[in-house]
Write a structure and sequence with these properties.
The chain has 4 helices and 31 strands. By secondary structure, it is mostly beta strands. The strands form 3 sheets. Strands 4-3-2-1-9-8-7-6-5 form a 9-stranded antiparallel β-sheet, sandwiched between helices. A 9-stranded antiparallel β-sheet has the order 13-12-11-10-18-17-16-15-14. Strands 19-20-21-22-23-27-28-31 form an 8-stranded antiparallel beta barrel. The protein starts with a helix and ends with a strand. The protein has helices spanning about 1-25, 35-50, 165-180, 390-395, and strands at about 55-60, 70-75, 80-85, 95, 100, 105-110, 135-145, 145-150, 155-160, 185-190, 195-200, 205-210, 220, 225, 230-235, 240-250, 255-260, 270-275, 285-290, 295-305, 310-315, 320-325, 330-335, 335-340, 345-355, 355-360, 365-370, 375-385, 395-400, 405-410, 420-429. Helices cover about 15% and strands about 45% of the residues. It has 3 domains: about 35-165, Lipocalin; about 180-275, Beta Barrel (Lipocalin), CATH 2.40.128; about 280-429, no CATH class. Strand 19 (about 285-290) and strand 20 form a beta hairpin.
Length: about 425
């Protein structure tokens, strides 16, 4: 036992000497302490932020699912304040404070309230968690031609690029250009390969699939610009990149073309078109007939382009039903939602049947797709289904909740005399 203890003591003594010996021979990698290096980095970031004479284009991506697409902001920095503009309120600018700090890494924070900058991050009675927007950002890269940020809340990558003209003019030009680019499909060549492109306008994503199935699909989020579209984080394929695409529209053929801007190493050239089954939100307007449960019920559709919704009215004189419009697909979708109150009892339209249904919006429901042979007919197709039987999604039931207990609705809340029905189609009169 004594000999065993001696071995342990010797081993511990040798072990204690090892790191000391290593440390004596190790040279310092950095000349300055970490806190000094961080301050130097932040000082450099501030210098770059203030260096753009017209300010910066900020391609802002609220919501971790990119539900609102890419929102255009402009930012003009001085020593302690930032002036903010945005497409959400064209022509309006608001000045507030910002700061650069070390918060688990170099960070840019818009730390005093700004109506525009905090629009997507401010809670309300209808969105108690706000719209999932950021106002604090991790600084990922700083260069005079591009600053890359990462939202602390969403994790979305966003970019600042220098403005080449005044902010108000740029916002107006970009919004006008975006209106002209409402073309959601394209075909042509990308990196010299035959490809199809889906411009997903719901989330502002450029999605490429190649005719050769052995070539991997590619995608990148985009923002509109006065001359076409811009990729805040460049689109890269096989080591080649493109930061922006120029757009030209031919009024005679009602088609457009995207091509790589000068200086790009990645070649893109695709012609745009509108699919035969595509419907604009304004196509969902006026008197319709809804076929549900084998019965035709008259209704009126009222689009709201600003909200991206379509009201389905007159199915019941107590309430309207709200459908969500998809710019990318040209469809409207109907999912579970609250219809009104019967005294203290909420009345809900739920996807499913009396035997099983979903209260949460978006979990299941139908999309109405335009029929390619009959443009006045919109067929209901299942969006998603939690049931292998297919009942959940296409079927709906109107439920009254009494003290949290679900009951089938009474006659005044029914549609066409039904509390449960299958959604089949909409036909424009």
């Amino acid at each position: 036992m004594k000999l065993f203890k001696t071995y342990i003591a010797v081993a511990l003594a040798l072990f204690a000497l090892i790191p000391t010996s290593c440390l004596k021979n190790q040279e310092d990698i950095f000349d300055d302490p970490s806190n000094v290096r961080m301050q130097q980095y932040l000082d450099h970031a501030k210098e770059v932020l203030m260096s753009a004479p017209n300010g910066w284009i900020f391609d802002y991506a609220p919501d971790r699912n990119h539900s609102y697409g890419m929102i255009l902001y402009t930012l003009q920095f001085n020593s302690g304040e930032v002036t903010v503009g945005s497409e959400i309120a064209p022509g309006e600018f608001e000045t507030s404070l910002y700061k650069l700090t070390n918060d688990n890494g170099p960070s840019l924070s818009f730390d005093s309230y700004n109506t525009l900058m905090h629009y997507f991050a401010t809670p309300s009675w209808s969105h108690y968690q706000a719209l999932d927007g950021d106002f604090e950002f991790i600084i990922m890269d700083v260069k005079p031609e591009r600053i890359v940020l990462k939202g602390k809340r969403t994790g979305n990558l966003m970019a600042l690029t220098p403005l080449q003209e005044d902010a108000e003019t740029y916002i107006k030009k970009t919004m006008a250009s975006a209106d002209e680019q409402f073309l959601v499909r394209a075909a042509g060549t990308v990196a010299g390969k035959s490809a199809e492109v889906f411009l997903n306008l719901d989330v502002n994503r450029f999605e490429i699939t190649f005719d050769d199935p052995s070539v991997e699909p590619a995608e990148a989020y985009f923002a509109f610009s006065p001359t076409g579209i811009r990729f805040p984080i460049p689109l890269e394929i096989d080591g080649k990149t493109v930061e922006s695409l120029d757009y030209k529209f031919d009024a005679a053929t009602e088609a457009g073309e995207y091509s790589s801007a000068a200086g790009s190493s990645l070649d893109v050239k695709v012609a745009t078109y509108i699919p035969a089954d595509y419907a604009y939100i304004t196509d969902y307007s006026g008197p319709f007939t809804m076929r549900l449960g084998g019965k035709d019920v008259d209704c009126t559709l009222e689009p709201n382009p600003a909200e991206g919704t379509v009201l389905i009215k007159d199915l019941n004189n107590r309430y309207d039903i709200v459908a969500q419009y998809s710019k990318g697909y040209g469809t409207i979708s109907l999912t579970s939602q609250e219809l009104g109150m019967n005294g203290k009892n909420p009345i809900k339209l739920c996807s499913g049947t009396g035997g099983g249904f979903y209260q949460a919006p978006g979990m299941a429901g139908v999309q109405f797709h335009r029929d390619t042979e009959n443009p006045n007919l919109f067929n209901a197709e299942i969006v998603s289904s939690m049931s292998k039987s297919g009942e959940v999604g296409r079927y709906f039931v109107i439920i009254e909740f009494v003290d949290g207990v679900a009951y089938l609705c009474s006659t005044p809340w029914q549609i066409g005399g039904m509390y449960e029905f299958e959604l089949q189609s909409l036909t424009k009169k």
